[in-house]
Amino acid sequence: MFYFLILLVFPALLGLWAQARVHSVFDKNAKLLSRSGITGREAARFVLESADIHDVAIESADSFLGDHYDPAHKRLVLSTQNYRGTSLAALGIAAHEAGHAIQHKESYAMLKLRMALVPITMFSSNLLPFIILGGFFFRAYGLLYLGVACYFMLTLFQLITLPVEFDASRRAEVLLNRLGIIGADERKGVHETLKAAGWTYVAAFVASLGNLLHLLLILSGSRRSND
User: Fold this and answer.
1) What one-character-per-residue DSSP string does 126-169 give?
2) Known catalytic residues?
3) Is the pTM of this model over 0.85?
4) pLDDT tens for residues 65-123?
5) Which residue segment(s) compose the domain that 194 sits in?
6) In the chain, count of helices (H) and strands (E)?
7) Selection from 13, 11, 15, 34 nearest residue 23 by Cα
8) C-alpha gyration radius of the chain
9) DSSP β-bridge partners for residue 5
10) What are residue 33's DSSP bridge partners?
11) Tens digit of pLDDT for each residue in 201-216?
12) How distant is the alpha carbon of residue 182 from its chain centre?
């Protein structure tokens, strides 16, 4: 029972808290308009141009907090609210995604590693439900060892994601300040927004690690009972 609480319940609660936190902080800082009046799209463009990047398209998508950088197609996608918005939240998130484009240009090692792991991670994620259901339903515990390998890949991917995201946030804060897009008194709102978003990646890693360890404990108990 103790291990169940630590490995499954705690990560789930952390994930719920992180999601609630990022929504709360985003809603708060989305109401704080920057004095510069620069939109998220403009901020992203300024950040990209400061790094001499001119071949990345900045597009709008009608999805809440669906902002991301697509390295395969060199696209920076911002939710409509952040694309057109002039809030501190919009500027922070837009600059964060531009930070990923800078990482790509500079061949940032952890981003390259994450990109290399994307195909096998997606394959593992799609395969995992069938492995887990098949393993427990048919009591084919040997199949669960393949599940361990899948969870290991997912956990490794989430671990590598952490420095990638934290580095992009650091770049965003530095460049927004250096380019004069935000004032000294506006840094808090940007930092708060990016820090809250960072917790969602921490929660994802903790959840994946918890599932991996929980499955290993089940297999360990199964082996002992068969000995």
Assistant:
1) HHHHHHHHHHHHTT-HHHHHHHHHHHHHHHHHHHHHHHHHHHHH
2) 97
3) yes
4) 789 999 999 999 999 999 999 999 999 999 999 999 999 999 999 999 999 999 999 99
5) 2-226
6) 8, 3
7) 15
8) 20
9) none
10) 87
11) 999 999 999 999 988 8
12) 24
How far apart CA 108 and CA 125 sit, in angstroms, is 25
User: Measured between alpha carbons, how far is 61 from 75 in angstroms, rounded to an integer?
Assistant: 11
The total number of structural domains that make up the chain: 1
* b/e sequence 194-226, b meaning 16+ C-beta within 10 Å: bbbbbbbbbbbbbbbbbbbbbbbebbeeeeeee
Q: How many Å is the maximal CA-CA distance in the chain?
A: 69
Distance CA 209, CA 66 (A): 24
Alpha carbon dihedral 93, 99, 101, 104, in 10-degree steps, equals: -140
| Interatomic CA distance for residues 46 and 57, integer angstroms | 13
Distance CA 113, CA 104 (A): 11
> Which residues lie below 8 Å from residue 185, measured CB to CB, with a gap of 6+?
none
